[in-house]
Amino acid sequence: MAARRALLLRALIMGPPGSGKGTVSARIVQHFALKHLSSGDILRDNMNRKSEVGILAKSYIDQGRLIPDDIITRLMLSELKNLERNSVLLDGFPRTVPQAEALDKVCPIDTVIDLDVPFETIQQRLTARWIHPASGRVYNLEFNPPKIPGCDDITGEPLVQRDDDKPETVMKRLKSYETETKPVLEYYRRKGVLESFSGTETNKIWPHIHRFLQTKLPDMSQKEASTNR
């Protein structure tokens, strides 16, 4: 049991919207035995199930107000309590220093993976996204452009850009992220657990994250490959 506990890892992934956090998280979970805990997913699940915390959180959202630290903290700590014997990858929590301090009292973080992607890169990435409203088909002008500019490949109908993907909105979200999370990154830097990975492409950043995590946990996908030989 002691050996099993020694292998437990409490990790946190941070990165601005559009930094590739979802892709990197999926790869981490695929390679390493970590449970991915996304605050957004857990919040939606609780609101759908109409749990006590979910109803409370929804009342703030419906009023256009931020959900207070203590509600999010209570929600996430409750989830973590069920995973005491698992390595975890937290995503979206903590977002503020009070949340980080409350988390530390119950479940100190071993390592923070910070995706340091230039805002200009993210802005290009997100503003290149256009959708076909009727079908939900998504196009990216850089990676997956429509055959005819501005038109859906199948229906020929016009594509639109979501308000969230417009340049001014994207930059506003990025600035808001920076203001909100800078103190949290600094908090973990002072604790000596912050690892920043810089780059403009997820596929080039990933090998560095993978190598770093291999120093913390065994790669389960490699284990399975050798077992199947």
What does this structure look like?
The protein has helices spanning 2-6, 21-31, 39-49, 52-62, 69-81, 97-106, 119-127, 167-191, 202-214, 220-228; strands at residues 10-14, 34-38, 87-91, 111-116, 129-132, 137-140, 194-198. By secondary structure, the protein is an alpha/beta fold. The strands form 2 sheets. A 5-stranded parallel sheet has the order 2-3-1-4-7, sandwiched between helices. Strands 5-6 form a two-stranded antiparallel ribbon. The longest helix has 25 residues, at 167-191.
User: Any idea what the shape is?
Assistant: globular
| Mean of residue pLDDT values | 90
Give the radius of gyration.
Answer: 20 Å
Give the biggest sheet: 5 strands, parallel
Number of strands: 7
Helix content: 40-55%
What is the count of helical runs? 10
* Order of H and E elements: HEHEHHHEHEHEEHEHH
Rounded to the nearest angstrom, the distance between the terminal CA atoms is 29 Å
Multimerization state: single chain
Roughly what fraction of the amino acids lie in strands?
5-15%
Structural class: alpha/beta
Strand order of the largest sheet: 2-3-1-4-7
Ranges with pLDDT <50 over ≥5 residues? 1-6
